[in-house]
Amino acid sequence: MTKILIVEDEEKIARFVELELKHEGYEVAKAGDGRRGLEMAESGDYDLILLDILLPELNGFELLRRLRKSSEVPVIMLTAKDEVMDKVAGLDMGADDYITKPFFIEELLARIRTILRKQSAKSPQSQENLLTYDKLSMDLARHQVTYDGHSLDLSAREFDLLHYFMDHAELVVTREQVLEAVWSYDYLGESNVVDVYVRYLRQKIDEVFGVKLLQTVRGVGYTLRRED
Ligand code: CA
User: What do you get for the CA distance between the two ends of the chain, in Å?
Assistant: First the structure.
């Protein structure tokens, strides 16, 4: 069973997240201050840690800094609204992702699934450098992509774009995020290039296999999500 540790001093938030995670089938433990959180995290028994920043005893940054000396366990930081610096600092210090409070629980669950999926892709039981989503399978080392076993002929840019979507499967990403990650800052402001390449990918995947994977989220951006 996947075990998640919540380090959060706001009992209402911790309790709410705990209930939702248990409902999803995760095993959950909680710590209400940073010192206890670090002790529990260092026990090494968790698959993922949700970490608040402002905590009694030891703040989230300090906890993370100490934890990273001995552990690579995935960490999602819970940041308060608009603490941009905190997000940057958290990622610099080895957090895997962050989510801004207040958040929608579905968004948190999607991020947890994404991180756990990446983690299991890294584990020795699965092939190294293999990303999968639905029937899509991407071999990063060999630069090959298949859908349901059929190999896809993608350009380098299409490959990078699909890689980004698979890394962020089921999350909504903006054109700007895609542009920054797959193209470069030189292209900022030219987000229609993303639309063009998404269209290419749809022509090679969705249209060929009769599926709906690359979806437009009106007014926001895109998401890679299987629609049945
Ligand atoms: Ca707090």
Answer: 27
Report how far ligand 1's centroid is from the alpha carbon of 193 (Å): 41
Calculate how far, in angstroms, residue 52's C-alpha sits from the geometric centre of ligand 1.
Answer: 6
Please tell me whether residue 144 adopts helix, strand or coil conformation.
strand
Q: How many Å lie between the centroid of ligand 1 and the Cα of residue 10?
A: 6
User: Phi, psi at residue 195, to the nearest 5°?
Assistant: -55, -40
Cα(2) to centroid(ligand 1), Å: 24
Q: How far, in Å, from the CA of 63 to the mean position of ligand 1? A: 13
pTM: 0.55
Contact 157, 194 (CB under 8 A): no
Report the amino acid identity of residue 77: M
Using alpha carbons, select from 109, 116, 110 the residue that is nearest to residue 18.
Answer: 109
From the list 191, 189, 186, 212, the residue with the least C-alpha distance to 201 is 212
Tokens coding 47: 């698959």
How remote is the CA of residue 23 from the centroid of ligand 1, in Å? 24
pLDDT tens profile 91-138? 777 888 888 888 889 999 999 999 998 877 665 544 567 899 999 999
